[in-house]
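Below is how a single chain appears once it has passed through the pipeline. First comes the sequence as given, then the structure the pipeline wrote out for it. We keep one example in the README because the format questions we get most often are answered faster by looking than by reading.
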Amino acid sequence: MKAIGVEEFGGPDALRVLELPEPQAGPGEVRIRVHAAAVNPTDVMLRTGGHAVRMPGRRPPFVPGMDAAGVIDQLGPGADGRLAVGQRVIALVLFVGPRGGAYAERIVVPAASVVPAPDGASFAEASTLLMNAMTARLALDAVAVTAGGTVAVTGAAGAVGGYAVELATADGLTVIADAAARDVERVRGFGADHIVERGAEVAARVRTLVPDGVPGLVDGSNQTTEVVPAVADGGALASLRGWAGPAGRGVSVHPVMVADALTDTERLDALSRQAADGVLSLHVADVLPADEAAKAHRLLEAGGVRGRLVLDFS
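Resulting structure:
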C-alpha cells in the first residue's frame, strides 16, 4: 500500500512516497481505508526528528499523521461493537507507535480511537476535527472554569484556539480571545465575547477587561510567561507545547498532551456529534494529493494558514 513518510529526518523534501505492507487488524483493532489525513504541526515535528525521543529503538520509515478519516474495511477479533465494516469514521492515530501514522492508504488503530464521522461532513472536513478539538477540550477541562465564568484564549484564529473558543462558548463561559486585525471576524464567528489585539501585550489587554485577571487561560499561541499576567491569582493556565511553569502567584500550569486521550472514546464521540450539530466548525484550508505532502508541509511552515491542509488518499 502507499504511504508517505521519511527514511531520514529533514525538511519537507525528506517526505517520500513509500510502498509498505498492508496492515492487518488484530484483537480490539480496526483497519481504516483512509480517504483524508489532516496535516498538523506535530507532523512537522515528526518529520524533523522532534519526536525521536518518543520512538526509542524504532527504525525508519516514519509515517506522520494523527488525524484520519475514511471507511472501516476490517474488524479485528473483539473489536468494539459500536463499529462496522463500511462505516464512515474518523480516528486519532498514535504515529510514534510501531504501526506509524495516518499518512497511508490503510491504517490499523485501536477501536477505542475510532468514532463515526460527523454527519454531513466530507472526508476532508472530517479529518480536521479530532486532534485539534480534543486538545482544546483537554485544555478547557484542565483549567476547569465553572459555567458563567470567564476564560481567555490566545491563538484564537488557529485550529486549537478556534475550537477552544467554540467549546468554551458551548460550555456557557464568557470568552476573551486574541486576534490580529485580519482575523477579528473569524474569531468573532467562533463565538468570542471580547476580542483583544494579539501580541506580546495580550495579557495587559485582557486585564483591561478583567482587572483581577481571568480564572483560566488556554495558551494556544504558546506565549507561556508572556500570558501568565492575564491569569488571576490562584487561576489556571493550559499550555499546549509542554511548558509546565512555574508561573507564581498560585497560578497552576497544566501541560496538555492529546496522546493522553487517544482512546477516550466518549469524548471523541462527543466532539464528532458537536461537529455534526454545528457547535464545532470544520475548516479546510486546501486539499492536496497525498503525493504533494512536501508542498503541504512547506505551506504549513510558511505560516498564515487558516484551517487545516489535508492530504487526499482516496
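The radius of gyration is 19 Å.

See the next section for the split statistics.
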